[in-house]
Every structure is written in structure tokens, then in C-alpha cells.
């Protein structure tokens, strides 16, 4: 994919300057400062003995700058060979000492001690990213999407292109008091600038060396025909905007939910749960030994369903579901279904 070329606010291409301006904007956003409090909490966790990778991952994903630094380090030479699909794998590759070194070197902003336009913009981006990540994690559970670690980082960084556009054009491309839906904003960006923040964000994420599905989820999260991770991010983004009182229509929510294979009853539940989703979020403290199908069967038990119902939903035979659940009990040392569900929830697998 060729990189987008910057335009002036009037729409004309600056001769020979567009590529340099865009590269400079990418460099600036690549050095995004972290919220001081988020970094302080992460450093404190890294200094403790025997802190679980899942707990460190929770702290890293509370701030986009921390997540970017950790993922870039793990995927660009500071970790073992191979690509980290998400923050958890990146932390396991770098180890707490490596994460601490990275975090300690990051610049920070503080919305209390050093308020200002830049700090406000960074904090809006951080808060919205975390909110969408929380919503999307629950959407991923409901839709039973694979590769949840990649989904989480894509949701956290889905609007990183907005920061690039701010570097290129200042705040002029933003709403400027106009009431717009996310899709309307994207259409205006394309019309006025010739590019949009989703495309620009995906280009930057690819430059950072993140997994292809992360960039794809970011690039297509405003597309009406989005599927998979992109559809989940689109729905999560709409739910967060709707909860903030922004002009999101019921039709847009239904369309996004359908693309994410979520029915209207589940959508209503997600919208009701949203303000409290982050409170129930857990991160696995140890790798999950269960296959996706075993987790699906166990999740059905946790929802109070019987074998026949689970089998119908998963398009499996009852005997196959029974086999999956017996494997679950054996792998995690549970004596019955109740204990299996409790253990899995306690370890953050459900």
C-alpha cells in the first residue's frame, strides 16, 4: 500500500513537501508521551517481585503510548524473533525489566500539573482508546472472535491516525463545534483532505511492524462492510460515542452489530453494560490451556446452558460438546462444571 500524501487545508498538494510533512507527523506520533500516572503505576508493578504478565499488561493497556512502546520494542529487534500479536506476548518477550526500561525513558504529560492543548488532545485520545478497547473486549467475547490480543491493541489504537492529522493540519480538521457521527467525520476528512484518519493510522501501524490484522482492523473500522475485528471495533466505537451523548442512530448501531454477528438482544445488553465493562475486565494471569472450541463450550456452561443448547449454537454434536468439556475438566483440574467455570473466570479466561 502506498502512503497517503498530505494536502494543505485548501486541498492543493504542496510540491515535494507532502511526503516530508507526513513522515515528520509519523515520527512525532511515534514518540507519543504517556500519562504520568499510567507510567507511575506501570513502573511500580515492574518493580515488584513475581508480578504476573497479565497484571503488567493491564497497566500497559491503560495508556496508548505505553502500549505502542512495548509493542514496537517486541516487534522491532528488542525481543526474540517472531511477531508479538498483542501486549501480553510483548511483555513476555521483553520481561518486566525490559518493560520498565522502556517506560522509564518515555516522555509524559500530566493533565493537572501541565494542562494545555497538547495534553488535552493526548488525554482525549487515551481515554477514548481505552473505552473502546473495553467495549470491544466484551464484543469479542459475545461474538466469539479469535485473536483477542490483536483485537485489543487494534481497538486501543484505532484513532491513532487522528493524532497524525492534528500534526499535519492542527485542530482544523476536527469537528470544530460541528455535531458529526464517526462516519460523517471520515467522509469529511476524505472530501477536505483526500485522506482519512483510519487509513493514516493503519499506515503508521504497519510502519511500526505490528501484525497485519491490527492494521487491517484500524484501517476498516469505519467501513460499512467491515467484518471480524474491524466490525467489532466499529461497533465498540459507536457504543462509546453513543454513551457520551453523541449523535449515533439506532440504525447505525444495529447495522454495526449485525456486521459483528451480534443480534439486537445482545446489542441492548452491551449498551446497558458499557459504563461498567471496564470494572469486570480481567486479564489472564497465566496462559490459557484451552482451545477456542473448549472455551466456547465452557462459556456456554457459564451462561447456564445445557449440552444440547451449546451443541446447537456451535453446530456440534452433543457428544462432541461433552468431549470438549471433559477435556476442560482434565486440563484445569476441575471436578465439575461449576468449579470449571469458577476457575476459568478467576484466571481471566472467560
Beta content = under 5%
CATH fold descriptor of the largest domain? Hypothetical protein af1432
Query: Which blocks of ≥5 consecutive residues have pLDDT under 50?
Result: 7-16
Helix content estimate: 55-70%
CATH architecture of the largest domain: Orthogonal Bundle
Radius of gyration, CA atoms, in whole angstroms? 21 Å
| Counted beta strands | 2
What composes the largest sheet?
Answer: 2 strands, parallel
Can you describe what's shown?
There is one protein chain. This protein has 350 residues and is an all-alpha fold. It contains 18 helices and two strands. The chain has helices at residues 18-30, 36-47, 53-60, 64-75, 87-105, 117-143, 148-156, 160-169, 182-193, 197-207, 212-219, 228-243, 250-259, 264-280, 292-302, 307-314, 318-332, 337-346, and strands at residues 34-35, 108-109. It is globular and about 60 Å long. The model is unreliable at 7-16 (pLDDT under 50).
Amino acid at each position: 500500500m502506498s502512503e497517503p500524501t498530505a494536502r494543505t487545508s485548501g486541498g492543493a498538494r504542496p510540491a515535494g513537501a507532502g511526503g516530508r510533512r507526513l513522515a515528520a507527523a509519523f515520527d512525532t506520533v511515534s514518540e507519543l508521551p504517556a500519562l504520568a500516572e499510567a507510567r507511575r503505576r506501570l513502573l511500580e508493578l515492574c518493580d515488584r517481585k513475581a508480578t504476573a504478565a497479565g497484571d503488567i499488561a493491564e497497566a500497559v493497556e491503560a495508556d496508548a503510548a505505553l502500549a505502542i512502546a512495548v509493542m514496537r520494542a517486541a516487534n522491532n529487534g528488542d525481543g526474540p524473533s517472531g511477531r508479538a500479536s498483542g501486549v501480553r506476548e510483548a511483555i513476555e518477550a521483553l520481561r518486566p525489566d525490559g518493560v520498565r526500561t522502556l517506560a522509564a525513558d518515555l516522555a509524559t504529560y500530566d493533565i493537572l500539573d501541565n494542562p494545555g492543548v497538547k495534553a488535552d488532545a493526548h488525554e482525549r485520545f487515551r481515554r477514548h482508546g481505552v473505552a473502546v478497547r473495553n467495549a470491544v473486549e466484551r464484543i469479542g467475547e459475545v461474538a466469539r472472535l479469535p485473536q483477542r490480543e490483536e483485537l485489543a491493541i487494534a481497538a486501543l489504537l484505532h484513532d491513532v491516525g487522528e493524532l497524525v492529522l492534528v500534526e499535519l493540519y492542527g485542530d482544523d480538521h476536527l469537528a470544530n463545534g460541528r455535531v458529526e457521527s464517526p462516519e460523517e467525520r471520515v467522509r469529511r476528512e476524505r472530501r477536505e483532505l483526500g485522506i482519512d484518519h483510519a487509513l493514516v493510522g493503519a499506515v503508521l501501524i504497519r510502519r511500526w511492524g505490528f501484525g497485519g490484522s491490527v492494521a487491517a482492523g484500524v484501517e476498516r473500522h469505519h467501513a460499512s462492510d467491515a467484518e471480524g475485528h474491524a466490525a467489532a471495533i466499529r461497533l465498540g466505537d459507536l457504543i462509546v460515542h453513543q454513551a457520551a451523548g453523541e449523535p449515533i442512530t439506532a440504525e447505525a448501531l444495529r447495522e454495526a452489530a449485525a456486521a459483528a454477528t451480534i443480534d439486537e438482544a445482545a446489542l441492548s445488553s452491551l449498551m446497558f453494560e458499557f459504563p461498567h465493562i471496564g470494572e469486570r475486565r480481567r486479564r489472564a494471569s497465566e496462559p490459557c490451556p484451552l482451545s477456542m472450541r473448549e472455551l466456547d463450550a465452557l462459556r456456554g456452561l457459564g451462561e447456564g446452558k445445557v449440552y444440547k443448547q451449546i451443541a446447537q449454537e456451535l453446530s456440534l454434536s452433543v457428544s462432541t460438546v461433552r468431549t470438549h468439556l471433559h477435556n476442560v475438566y482434565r486440563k484445569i483440574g476441575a471436578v465439575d462444571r461449576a468449579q470449571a467455570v469458577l476457575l476459568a473466570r478467576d484466571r481471566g479466561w472467560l
